[in-house]
Amino acid sequence: MGELQKILRVSIFLADTPIPKVFEKFGGYDEQISKLLQDTINSKKLKLSLIIKNYDVKNMEFPEEDDLSKMDGIIITGSASSAYDDIPWINRLADFTKLIIDKHQHIKLIGICFGHQIIARAAGGQIIKNPLGWEIGVTEVSLTDVGSNFFKIDNKVLRIQEMHQDHVKILPKGFCNLGFTSKSSIQGMIKGNQVLTVQGHPEFVGESTKIIINARLNKGIFTQEFAQTGLKAADYEDDHVIIGLKFIEFMMGYYHKSPYTRPGPLTFHQF
User: Fold this and answer.
1) 271 in a domain, yes or no?
2) Exposure pattern of 84-120 as b/e (b: 16+ CB <10 Å)?
């Protein structure tokens, strides 16, 4: 008899739709994140099946109470919106995220870019527009001791596609910082074995990042010089496979006691 196929049930909270040229070529954030996870499963030859359900939170679509018992993880996507904005869907998302953190600890919560920031807001941190400006393209994140132990990277540098100006200024109580750059001091967070975030976009590829850079250059958001630097950086090698695997391990309960220790071989919940 072959090895039992494990199942990972993931809900993706869609906080936006990519710009048209990205959407046309790479799909929505759900498709890009699903590809990251599935490519990781394939490359690592994991005996694991994904069941993914999307919630369009920007249009006030949230799970019912009964749905929460069926989830292993929630991933909150990026967005062109700001996590500190006082608008109904963002306020509702922050409240719902706090509910998950406080009342549904069995659900692993992952945040990407805007998702990272909304989790920080929900947990009592502070998000602002970064006065030092944007970070775009593949960026080298210097890992803290916590981040280095979590990602298991010897040189303490994590390379990730970035596309943000807002950032987390104050870390929420009970969270650990995973890494930092010269522009942004909180590049990811972890809380026990329940919450994991990254400021960057591991689901982005070089081409999708370059489409966004060119669109913002054309709108006058980026200068020519800054855009050219970002376009070059978009093609640098990154660590999306490492991050994708950590997402999967985290949602499957790999980190049982703390973000600092490895409990042993990769294990999965049984359903």
Assistant:
1) no
2) beeeebbeebbebbbebbeebeebbbbbbbbbbbbbb
pTM comes to 0.92
pLDDT at 254: 76
Give the H/E segment covering residue 244.
helix 240-251
The CATH number that applies at residue 49 is 3.40.50.880
Catalytic residue among 167, 201, 240, 249: 201
Q: Is 176 a catalytic residue?
A: no
Instruction: Determine, yes or no, domain membership for 260.
Output: no
- Domain assignment of residue 68, given as a range: 6-251
Residue 201 known to be catalytic: yes
* Mean per-residue pLDDT over the chain, rounded: 92
Which residue is associated with the tokens 């309960």? 253
Using the structure block, give the residue that is written with the tokens 């929630």: 74
What is the dihedral sign for C-alpha 209, 114, 153, 143? positive
- Select which of 135, 203, 240, 249 is catalytic: 203
Q: Catalytic one among 113, 116, 167, 176?
A: 113
